[in-house]
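User: Thanks for the earlier help. One more: Transcription termination/antitermination protein NusA. Can you show the sequence and predicted structure together?

Assistant: Of course, both are below.
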Amino acid sequence: MDAKVLIESFAEFARSKNVDRPTMIRILEDVFRAMIRKKFETDENFDVTINADQGDLEIFRIREIVDDNSEDIWDLDKISFTEARKIEPDFEIGEEVYEKIELEAFGRRAVQMARQTLIQRIKDLEKDLLYNKYEELVGEIVSAEVYQILGREILLMDGEGNELILPKAEQISKDRFRKGDTVKAIVHRVDMSNGNPKIILSRTSPVFLERLFENEVPEVYDGLITIIKIVREPGERAKVAVESYDDRIDPVGACVGMKGSRIHAVVRELQNENIDVINYTENLDLYVTRALSPAKVSSITANEETKRLSVFLKPDQVSLAIGKGGYNIKLASRLVGYEIDVFRELNEYEEEDVDLMEFVDEIDSWIIDELKKTGLDTAKSVLSLTKEDLTRRTELEEETVDEIFRILGQEFDQ
């Protein structure tokens, strides 16, 4: 393979990978200089000129002519007077010899090795470009097409044919994709695995929800409305705290849109995830009240040391505060940054009820804590439920629930 064929084939391959001309020339020169160093120990006294468009390559070895008896005769950048005269009869001591080195002088094997190295360098460059491209896109929404569905992940292809990965853990539980579907997700992170960039997408990240709001709500995109915090149970429920520094803009109304037009687009993309948009405030009591909506809070007591809140509600509001599957209270706790304990307000007919803490000698404290987290703080509030309801709410073992009912039941039997 001569230089012209080698360079032209490499240039064609590089152009197909969208490699710019200066980078192409730099890679060619690096590879040829590596060949020179392997054969001649150094490339410092070599001049390499490449014209990728024409497929031209010129390599000149530059050496200074010294006397045959000179101590410098063994230096790599020196040539004896006798040797120089063989190249050109009228050379004199002190002059420089420019000796052209043909590619064939390196041997067929070295040339084949150079060709493989060139292709590998382009592939490595392509990987670096891909890594850098998606590293800059972390936290941004991308669209890609499903081309393979595996057990633990879905493989997608972007518009340039690059592979993207949507792991099972980053999918919404209700997501159901088929080959050929277009999927929206954010670039969650970019890893390097055995030298190959691994682009991980996510549809469960709060950042995905934030980007969807930016796409659907111009005031959020323009910075007129700020998203303070987002908490999610992907596919089930989310709470978004928003704030506007312009009194003329209602941040909640702007995010929801006329008749819910803006938020519906977000909800559909998230597989009907229930989204609560809340007006942020630094007033903790008011913020907690909004976070626990649609439940109506009667009073709140905060413990700053333990970062816990005791929230008191009327009995008919407790289940609303907890929400289906406990999502409402869990998300409210994460949104405000406090652990929330829900308590029922006792009316005059419930005064004979007994606080669960009275049973701490018979029921483990961690079990009582679990009951309180679901708004059950008295014996009657527990006994008012069926065993199945209590098991589902608390995820306690059936045997434990039976024992709780036995202990509490004995109190009122007496």
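User: Great, one quick takeaway?

Assistant: The CA atoms of residues 36 and 42 lie 7 Å apart.
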